[in-house]
Design brief:
309 residues; 0% strand; elongated
Amino acid sequence: GLLSYLILLLPIFLIPVNGTNFISDRYLYLPSLGLIIFLIPILKWLLGLFKNQIKYLIPSVLILLFAIFSFMRTGVWKNSDALFTNLIENYPEEPIGHNNKGLYLYQEGKEDQAINYFNAALFLKPDLKEALFNRGTYYYEKGKLDQSLEDFNQYIIYYPNDTRGYGARGAVFATQGNKQAAIQDFEKAKSQGEFSIDAFKNLAKVFLEQKKYAEAAENYGAYLNFYPNDPEINYLKGVIEERLKNYSGSIYHISISIKENPSEGKYYASRAKAYYLNEQLDLARADVKIAEEKGIEISKAFKELLKNK
């Protein structure tokens, strides 16, 4: 029984450490079966030392105690708020609890409460990875770009190989209007790592604002390799392809957008233009009609072109 406990515990040490989530009692659930098997003969031997009346009393008391402890524990595990509050109360010096409580509040829409916990976590451990990122994100969402930039700069100093930091800082630079710095960070972010996908989209957006259509199309295309049915990105890719005079490519991507979200009128209006430029006039007229039915205003000049051609 004890050997099976150790064997079942061994795979736990092979689980990669992910951020701050490296200690959890759930890792002991399955191995505990071996420990129970180990304890059963010992308990049986102890019960043999007592008379019959006491023999049945001891298991009853043990079961009652386990039931009480289990009931008390359910109050801690009933939701994330209770769990992280309990963690902070029992281990106030541990920054993980403060960060996790802050993240929970942030996700619940209580951002102004969340920031206090992110600050507490970083006071205890200034290089706490998730807390730095969470606070930087909070400042960014609140429009406090200088403070957000400061946090993401620190994040990159502490974790230079984590591409997520470059992607986040690039978003700050882009919002500040520092396009060149944003491009440099997005290029680093997309080079590797699980957070590279959004970097393609963000980089494409910056190139689009600079009217660098070929570069924007390339990066939107890279993003669509991961999410080929994203309606909005397909629409943007289609609009750019039309500007690059690749009309069939424009029609292809906007058609995906319409398939995924047929209620969006602007998709039909844009495809109508691509159809017109590709000399598919009947299809262009059909899309104009649908777009107008969905409340999109089509210019009189364009309708006249379709009518007279």
